[in-house]
Amino acid sequence: MGALVSLLVGLYQSIFGTIERLTNGWFLGLAARFVFASVLLVFFLKSALTKVGDGFFGFLSPSTGAYVQVLPSLMEKVGYDTSQIAFFPYGLIVLLGTWGEFILPTLVVVGLFTRVVSLGMIGFVIVMSYVDIVGHGADATTIGAWFDGPSGALIADQRLLWIFVLLVLVLKGPGKISLDALLGSLYRRRQDQF
After folding, report:
1. What residue ranges of the chain have pLDDT lower than 50?
2. In angstroms, rounded to a whole number, what is the distance separating the alpha carbons of residues 176 and 30?
3. pLDDT tens digits, residue range 22-52?
4. For position 152, what pLDDT does the model report?
């Protein structure tokens, strides 16, 4: 019996040790960025597109919808008239939030400044969740709860999974197949020349 257990333990360690060695340094970061891209990239880009103003330079002046999405209570107080809202800090918050919704997800996917950008995305998701709950008054079903039966709540359940994928990137990095890795190798090569 002891020999069988030893054989199974050895087989287990051999198989999963090999898998770990073969995927070390490249797979986890690439997989996390692929999951982020396939689940969230289009979501964030479409959301960002609803926030830009008209014309070619619309990205410089967010739409009224951007203010409604980001600052719902304030917009209600001013009768949905954005001219009544001071640029600093509120207009700046909306502008930076709009730009962040374009820039941060794109940088996560290509793997550029991945750790800090993923940390920024975590903050973005937390703020977005707060605005949805407090500002837009999300109902209990939409908010959901952890450790309950249903696993599909749009805020508590889904956004925790979003944050987990981003946390993997913060802790493990983007992997060897990323712009971070490419730029790092170019930098090291340049340093070796001097």
Report:
1. none
2. 8
3. 999 999 999 999 999 999 999 999 999 999 9
4. 86
Cα separation of 178 and 183, whole Å? Answer: 9
pLDDT at 157: 95
Q: φ, ψ for residue 133 (rounded to 5)?
A: -80, -50
Determine how many CB atoms are found less than 10 A away from the CB of residue 165.
20
Neighbours of 55 (CB within 10 A): 9
CA 52 to chain centre: 20
Other residues' Cβ atoms within 10 Å of the Cβ of residue 46: 10
Q: Quote the CA–CA distance of 123 and 156 in Å, as a whole number.
A: 15
Token pair in block for residue 177: 């197949």
State the residue for tokens 């600052």. 71
pLDDT at 177: 95
Residues 39, 53 contacting (CB under 8 angstroms): no
Nearest to 120 by CA among 134, 137, 99: 99
Locate the domains of the chain by residue range.
26-193
pLDDT at 191: 87
Both tokens of residue 97? 């939030």
Q: Who's near 168: CB < 8 A, 6+ residues apart? A: 28, 29, 32
Q: What are the start-end ranges of the H helices in 50-155?
A: 64-70, 72-77, 92-110, 114-130, 140-143
